[in-house]
Amino acid sequence: xxxxxxELLSELFNAAPTSIGVAGTSGxxxxxxxxxxxxxxxxxxPTVMNGAVMKNFADADHPFASALIGGSDLFVSEVDESDGSxxxxxxxxxxxxxxxxxxxxxxxxRDLFGGFVQRAATAVLNLDNPETAALAQELAPGKAITFAxxxxxxxxxxxxxxxxxxxxxxxxxxxxxxxxxxxxxxGAHNVANALAALGAVKALxxxxxxxxxxxxxxxGIRRRMEVVGTVNAVTVIDDFAHNPDKIAATLKTxxxxxxxxxxLFQPHGFGPLKLMRREFIDGFxxxxxxxxxxxxxxxxxxxxxxxxxxxxxAIAEGVREAGRQAEALxxxxxxxxxxxxxxxxxxxVLVMGARDDTLSSFAADLLERLGAR
Length: 373
Prior knowledge:
Strand order of the largest sheet: 3-2-4-1-5-6-7-8-9-10
Number of domains: 2
Oligomer: single chain
CATH topology of the largest domain: UDP-N-acetylmuramoyl-L-alanine:D-glutamate ligase
Strand content: 15-25%
Distance between the termini: 57 Å
Radius of gyration: 21 Å
Mean pLDDT: 94
Largest sheet: 10 strands, mixed
């Protein structure tokens, strides 16, 4: 019989004596990468399956380092709810970063994540997200390790966040202990991701001091706010954001620093635009500045019977009605031409979208064209 990837992966995962499963709507790949790096740096020899390339492990011989082959007794994996395969996993440690609408309706998500957490020996949960905070309430005392930004009641909390040009600094409080933490990945969302990773390794007995030291050299995940380059004072950034929460986190992070944003957002399908039309519009309107510009090609469409009634123009129109600049163009090439035409020194060009591997080469081409002007 032929096994699907989720079947095989969950069997290998469940066979390991110790396992960490990382789930949630946003942050999974980064948290998985952080846990992998901490365990690797502290000599635990983990085997890791990630959904994205971990820059720390990528080199000329391993350009696609989304997996790490280590020992068979410690398995770390990103766990996906979109195909329901999360129901197959029985983790020692279950991490749930946050839960919001992305692939499935909320009721179904609550069941999937709730079961995942119940099956684990320890759950690492985010108190800042109402859905994951509710899961923490349901667990027996001592089963949950909680984290939050600024919330003293959590087991791990981050305070005094200071954005740096390449990352973040913050004060970590764990019980009576305090640590100064420096991250080389930017944004408050990455502070939350770091807390989730620290909670997961704490559950395995790694000392927080050692874990914090390892995190300082965590290089990030490919296509997560990855700077492609800067030319003529215009910076091009490649990013995987494709749902309203991820887009909001990226825009917030970039607006901690000066400069107009020229945003190319390629939706990853017609379905999500229809399901979350309002959330997309509100997300852009709430976080775009007056001089920012949003450019959208039509969604990625692989054929089939998809309902194509809500396209990019529906989003751009909503953003314009609220007083922000947005244009829907027929295709990505037209968006690229528009960016090359508009860009001026000090701008940041943000290429956003998922499920399309050509976006990264498109971002690299843009950088080249901006340099040749």
